[in-house]
Amino acid sequence: MYLTVNNHKTYCYTGGKAFDAAKPTIVFIHAVLNDHSVWILQSRYLANHGWNVLAVDLPGHCKSQGDAPASVEEAADFVAQLLDAAGVASAALVGHSWGSLIALEVASRLKERVSHLVMIGIAYPMKVSPALLDASLNEPMKAITMVDVFSRSTLAPPPSALGPGTWVYGASMALHRRVLTSNPLVNLFHRGFKACDSYANGENAMAAITCPVLFVLGEQDQMTPAKAAQTLISKARDNGKKISISNLAVGHHQMTEAPEETLFAITAFINT
Asked: For residue 131, what pLDDT is reported?
């Protein structure tokens, strides 16, 4: 489905179901150098179980037009405008990595308009190593290889991950190359990493949200280690937020390394 946001065509995958603004809505926000397809297993299930799904391509990524966000704050502006364009009064937000920071920032601004906040592979601060930042700018193909090795706890997926015989590592490499080449005007890799590295409003945002929060963390995550979420977890507890934590025995790409466990954690949370 295409929506017009800021006078630009914006693509949202709806899980194969027609969008109905009267139904409860869940918005999926992808990470750096990803697109809507990373949510395929979770979004299709939810679309077939009573939810509107908006798995968005962020501006300047793949099927969406517009200038790619240069900061978490810019991306949060876009998501708020997306909800307006879709006519959605209230939504649950699910973000992965960079997308989790974006979802957090949106929830802090929209308050009661966000019913649930799910942050997968979250870290704060989400600092990126200088070597990886430099590689993303000057040697992006080398950086893609680095990220895909660091993001995986295994190069062989479980049978339920996209189907038997799927090469998760190779599929992710191909996705990253496709997203990078989808925008010849901007290095989406470096711009996204700089946005993660520069975001400094996490604790204030956590204090400001009004909805319950789910942290989905990878015990073997080398990109955003589980311990790097503790700043936000502590801030949420100190401010009396309702939080849940799901620890999965996988790496950074929980949606494909543990698709069912990730889905079950999300559905159990948003259905309460």
From this structure: 94
